[in-house]
């Protein structure tokens, strides 16, 4: 899966070289999270994106759509060549998630709403015909740490606990930055994991760039008796040494050959990925 993560990063850099640029920092910090979900944990089928018993993924931090598009391309939901059309006229790959893209369940961008949407899908999965006789499909939602300043997140967290949503997993990308600077400087608060635990969620903390640890943490979350939060410690613009851990990486336009060459050189070459698999037979 490490090769997949490198390939996803290559795609993100190429998208930032397009006419509009892109949200590089928050996309790069989420790469391993998305790869772990789409290649190991989630029960999905690229050949049948609307499969009724599929696990559902909600990208609440919608500005990281480049990372989702790149992961979907590597997983086989869309052609890899389509990534080059990002934000170009006629492309379905918009700056924020577009439901015209297979694998994108909701159009997101206004922060703070993804968890409420995930509550709805997780509830619907538990009500589906036959759900009582089997393990219901699951919903995973990816949030950012700056996004946690939105009150709607905590309203939804309270509802999920009241509903005992044991098929709902919130994954939080804690890269310590938001658009206007460091999260602690904008609105410092209690440690992220403590906040989720305080709302009654089973909470696990993990290195968000360690694929093996991520997989184990997601397994633990899946076995929780109620809603679970996986708090991922990450680095803004991870993998792009010249921009790592910098607020300036939030939105990047690689609009000159010099800029693009510098970032490519910092990133390094991605290994050639293996062929994608089909529907997973188990729950990971």
Largest sheet: 5 strands, parallel
Order of helices and strands: HHHEHHEHEEEHHEHEH
Radius of gyration: 18 Å
Tally the helices: what do you get? 10
Distance between the termini: 14 Å
Explain what this protein looks like in three dimensions.
The chain has 284 residues and is α/β, with parallel strands linked by helices. It contains ten helices and seven strands. The protein has helices at 2-16, 24-29, 31-41, 65-75, 114-127, 151-162, 183-187, 192-198, 211-222, 257-267, and strands at 56-59, 139-144, 168-174, 177-178, 181-182, 202-207, 228-233. The chain has a five-stranded parallel sheet with strand order 1-2-3-7-6, sandwiched between helices. Strands 4-5 form a two-stranded antiparallel sheet. Strand 6 (202-207), helix 9 (211-222) and strand 7 form a beta-alpha-beta unit. Helix 1 (2-16) crosses helix 4 (65-75) and helix 3 runs parallel beside helix 4. Residues 269-284 have low confidence and may be disordered.
């Amino acid at each position: 899966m490490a090769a997949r993560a490198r390939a996803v990063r290559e795609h993100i850099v190429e998208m930032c070289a397009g006419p509009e640029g892109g949200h590089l920092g928050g996309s790069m910090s989420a790469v391993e999270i998305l790869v772990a979900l789409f290649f190991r944990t989630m029960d999905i089928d690229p050949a049948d994106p609307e499969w009724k018993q599929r696990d559902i993924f909600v990208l609440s931090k919608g500005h990281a759509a480049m990372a989702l598009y790149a992961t979907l391309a590597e997983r086989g939901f869309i052609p890899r060549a389509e990534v080059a059309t990002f934000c170009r006229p006629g492309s379905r790959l918009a700056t924020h998630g577009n439901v015209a893209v297979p694998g994108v369940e909701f159009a997101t961008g206004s922060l703070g709403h993804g968890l409420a949407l995930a509550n709805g899908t997780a509830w619907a999965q538990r009500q589906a015909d036959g759900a009582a006789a089997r393990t219901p499909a699951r919903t995973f939602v990816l949030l950012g740490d700056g996004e946690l300043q939105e009150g709607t997140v905590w309203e939804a967290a309270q509802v999920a606990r009241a509903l005992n949503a044991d098929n709902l997993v919130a994954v939080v990308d804690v890269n310590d930055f938001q658009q206007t600077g460091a999260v602690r400087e904008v609105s410092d608060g209690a440690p992220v994991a403590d906040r989720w635990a305080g709302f009654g969620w089973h909470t696990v903390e993990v290195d968000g760039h360690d694929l093996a640890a991520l997989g184990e943490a997601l397994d633990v979350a899946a076995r929780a008796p109620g809603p679970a939060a996986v708090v991922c410690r990450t680095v803004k613009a991870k993998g792009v040494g010249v921009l790592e851990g910098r607020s300036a990486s939030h939105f990047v336009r690689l609009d000159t050959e010099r800029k693009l060459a510098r970032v490519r050189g910092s990133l390094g070459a991605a290994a050639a990925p293996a062929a994608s698999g089909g529907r997973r037979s188990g729950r990971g």
